[in-house]
MoeA C-terminal domain IV
Amino acid sequence: MESPDATPRLKAAILIVSDTASKDPASDKTANALAPILAAEGKWETPAIKIVPDNVFQIQQAVCDWTDGPNWYNLVLLSGGTGFAVRDNTPEAVSPLIHRHAPGLVHGMIAASLKVTPFAMMARPVAGVRDKSLIITLPGSPKGAMENLDAVVKLLPHACLQTAGGSSRVMHAGGVKKLEAEAGVSSTSEQRQHDHHHHHHHGHGHGCGHGHVVPKAHTSSADRPQSNDPSAGPNRRYRSSPYPMLSVEEALLQISEHTPEPTIIEAPVNLSVVGSVIAEDVYAAEAVPAYKASIVDGYAVIATDSPSGPSTKGIFPVASVTHANVGGGLVPLQPGNIARITTGAPLPPNANAVVMVEDTVLASSTPDGTEEATVEILTGDIRPGENVREPGSDIALGSKILSRGDVISPVGGEIGLLAASGIRTVKVFKKPRVGVLSTGDELVEHDDPRTLTGGQIRDSNRPSLLSCLQAWGFPTVDLGIARDTPAGEIEHALRDSLRGVGRASSSVDVIVTTGGVSMGELDLLKPTIERSLGGTIHFGRVSMKPGKPTTFATIPFKEATSTTEGAQQERQSKIIFSLPGNPASALVTLNLFVLPSLHKLSGLGESSQALASKPWMAPQLGLPRVAVVLTHHFPLDPKRTEYHRAVVTASRSDGRLYATSTGLSGTGQRSSRVGSLASANALVVLHPGRGVGIKGEIVEALMMGPVHGCDTRLIC
Ligand SMILES: Nc1nc2c(c(=O)[nH]1)N[C@H]1C(S)=C(S)[C@@H](COP(=O)(O)OP(=O)(O)OC[C@H]3O[C@@H](n4cnc5c(N)ncnc54)[C@H](O)[C@@H]3O)O[C@H]1N2
Ligand code: MOO
Ligand SMILES: [Mg+2]
């Protein structure tokens, strides 16, 4: 008989899912209960053990670390989080990772537990295959986990060998009988045939919502069901997109609905808050000016309103001098004296008006000839308060200086108010951090000095998208290039960016990818989002040109954030925009779809009382929309709304805005031509139709940059 040690052992890993054990590993008893059951079989290496809290993202990351990449494990057992409690979400974390479900194992485990307790009905186990690994969830209690593992442990070596790519014929020739004997079960050859039949003809039952699977009775490859599983091969890929085609307006509604609410941070008042939106009304901490200040350079006087009072006209001794930066206490001004003063300086006590130096002449100097002794004031019309700023007359102490919803603009007015009134920190909505990932095997860094070979192209999307995002004022993370092959690179790049590891030093709020969203067998973004990351695609096609395959999704992820009300909450998901790879498509869809979402996340959509009274100032999300006159005919697409790249200029003669195409030739607006955006400051919206948009017609345009001035005669 073969010694168990003569054959290579299988690799197993145990993931304990428990909030408690993740804080206190000594409290876990299950891992130590399961390991001996595997050891007793003599076919397993000592299992790897890890503990994570009941957190979907951490569970998925741990499982993927064991199933993906070169150091994969044959078997991944999870224990815990499979019940009905609110924090029990192990099945929800594991299901999306599974490529092929194994309901038989689930039945087997539940059947075994039911013999022990009716509470087995409250277990929600999941089992199945991811790549070459078998994943099984077990109950959290040591007893329940042991019972379940006992029920299936004899089958696992066989299942794992098949999963890893072992020949099923060899297995069936001898191995199955042996296993059946060991497991105390038997099957007929018909049953085994039946199993094979299922294996070939049923879809993966993946909860992705789009995986329409057509069961067929025959086995020819042309008849096999279509799937969004890239590993199923090109002969099984979709031949028409399963994603409904949305209008741009419908797509924008989805984005608005699924973009999370903005979060609030307390930021220091410095240049980093420029572009941020105020989250809480701000009240002046100090009055401006803080004292009675002179508006001019001249002489502080004691003026009176009474016609019978002393006139300011005449010759007066200059009793004191006050400069703007006065140090200690001020000497009170005595009646009959005047005090020299500079602009902005505090008036001495008793003084109530200032005479401009232009309205005076020097009457006499001090004996040493260096100073004024007396000065003659030439005007008698000085009234109390003249040339004086009262304390708080620019900004009253405690007055509201900025309202929730106000934007701290680069013009400087808002930051000036904050700085002047002694506000050192301010509550603003956090600007979202955006990660940009290029995908594709053909991509080469744009500055790679080597000559391109074969189908290589330079990655122009990352620099162009990053530049656009940074110009809009959002912090960005360059996530690099992820290859389509080997499988999993895109998934890992996305997971790392959410976790803030690898190229992303801290986690990103929004992911933007380009490439891989259309119909090719290496267009992996949609399956990666749905199958590997358990995400939900809210739209995967839009009736627009360019940008048809634009994809928008949410990916489950948990982290602690504070709400707009300041309470702590767990944010459930992050958003991802997967834009088409064609460079013009990527930039147009960034402007059209990503910007409104970033605006919402930045708090631009937050209502403000101040703005309610000034509706014309209410900030709109996304690019500003204006009406423009076409300076020439624009061709129309028969089906899709076109976003034609154009230069919009403001006429100096009639004040209207005029739009001229950046390229009208047959290929001028082709989605591969990034040059169609060079010099463009607008996207002219052309609704589908026959023929052309006529010269002189007024249409809508979205402004991407400032309007240039022009002489209408030169463009029309
Ligand atoms: N059978 C169909 N084919 C295509 C359809 C369709 O509906 N049915 N849609 C077309 C449309 S429209 C577009 S847009 C593109 C979208 O393509 P993908 O998003 O899948 O992108 P890729 O296939 O990866 O690349 C397309 C194109 O863009 C170049 N590219 C990709 N990344 C970059 C980058 N970072 N910098 C510069 N250029 C990049 C890539 O090399 C390709 O040439 O699909 C059509 N096909
Ligand atoms: O929709 Mo695609 O972006 O035209 O080429
Ligand atoms: Mg493609």
